[in-house]
Write a structure and sequence with these properties.
The protein is of the alpha/beta class. The protein contains 13 helices and eight strands. The strands form two sheets. The protein has a four-stranded parallel beta sheet. The protein has a four-stranded mixed beta sheet with strand order 4-3-6-7, with no helix packed on it. Helix 7 runs antiparallel to helix 10, helix 8 (209-220) packs antiparallel against helix 9 and helix 11 packs antiparallel against helix 12. The longest helix is centred in the middle third of the chain and has 22 residues, at 164-185. The protein is elongated and about 75 Å long. Bound molecules: iron/sulfur cluster (SF4).
């Protein structure tokens, strides 16, 4: 039986995450203000090491400055001043962030400010030449370039992170990205990829059973594919599989599978007790932390090395308290 090393919760262990500077309180907004985020400056700041950035300031604009907006073709909008001049600032803004963008291959996540024609990730208004908004919405210029350059990077808007389920999913993806970068990308090998996959077996199963099976099949025939292509293919499919929050039903299913590892080491009475708590979670009577704490207790006491190393049991530091909220 293979054993795996856990790297999720070391004291003093921080993860590099990019962030719109105004969310950390930098007075860089067009009106000279900021959008300080309690969440980003609170719990997250103990675990994330921020790389703050304002693409508009990087493009040489001061504060305060005139407002900007996206105009034209929704597939390729231009960034222009909102005033009557409509001056096109696209090239200036793109050249302001392009160099910086190249240096971020070490990031494991990015938190963007919403409603900005530069940083907004979703629902940004795009205007016609005549000044009326199109029905179709888009993405800020910087956000679009960031997602294009780093397609595997977990990126989320700060506003959406106020939703506990989306927040938990984002943080989990940040830690997946970190672990893949450190354990597979840094020393690429089939062996390291297999170890990574094995350690995430039940987390994958809790999110997407079909993707879990398909990734297993991909690895089973992996000897035929060149390693760099295989790593990209694997990370693409894994990232997609966990991009949506797991449902209570599939979480319960994954926990029941893990419980199978205890069938010979805990009494049937104890098993029934754990199953009962999993069922309570399934019925939304308790949060995810409740059955997992119980399961973890028994796994640490009576589980084998393989199941103890499953990252599903602790996909990010428990001190973040995220599983108490979903
Ligand atoms: S460009 Fe981005 S970082 Fe700068 S003020 Fe606007 S939203 Fe904040």
């Amino acid at each position: 039986m293979m054993s795996f090393k856990k790297t999720t919760s070391r004291p003093g262990y921080t993860i590099p995450v990019g962030i719109s500077g105004c969310l950390l309180g930098d007075e860089v907004r067009h009106d000279g203000g900021h959008r300080r985020s309690k969440l980003c400056l609170g719990t997250f700041s103990d675990f994330f090491e921020y790389r703050r950035f304002c693409p508009e300031v990087a493009a040489g604009f001061g504060t305060p400055r005139p407002t900007m907006r996206l105009v034209g073709d929704p597939g390729n909008p231009r960034l222009r001043l909102s005033d009557h001049s409509g001056e096109d600032l696209t090239d200036q803004v793109v050249s302001g962030f392009s160099g910086q963008l190249e240096t971020w291959s070490h990031l494991d996540g990015y938190i963007l400010m919403k409603n900005s024609p530069s940083c907004g990730m979703t629902g940004i208004k795009i205007y016609r030449e005549n000044g009326y908004p199109l029905e179709q919405r888009g993405r800020g210029l910087f956000a679009e370039a960031l997602l294009k350059k780093y397609p595997f990077l977990p990126v989320e808007e700060e506003g959406r992170l106020n939703d506990h389920v989306l927040r938990e999913n984002f943080v989990m993806r940040v830690y997946v990205h970190y672990n893949f970068r450190h354990e597979v990308r840094r020393q690429p090998s089939y062996h390291n990829l297999l170890q990574f996959h094995s350690s995430y077996k039940y987390l994958l199963m809790a999110h997407n059973q079909q993707a879990y099976r398909e990734l297993g099949q991909l690895l089973a025939v992996s000897g035929k594919e060149p390693l760099p292509e295989l790593l990209d293919e694997y990370q693409f499919r894994f990232t997609k599989a966990v991009s949506k929050p797991a449902k209570r039903g599939s979480q319960s299913n994954a926990m029941q599978h893990i419980l199978g590892y205890l069938s010979r080491t805990v009494s049937s009475e104890e098993r029934l007790g754990i199953l009962d708590v999993i069922a309570q979670y399934h019925r939304a009577e308790v949060n995810l932390a409740t059955p997992l704490t119980l399961l973890n207790h028994y796994i640490q006491r009576a589980g084998n090395d393989y199941v103890r190393a499953q990252r599903y049991l602790e996909p990010y530091p428990a001190a973040m308290g995220l599983r108490n909220q979903v």
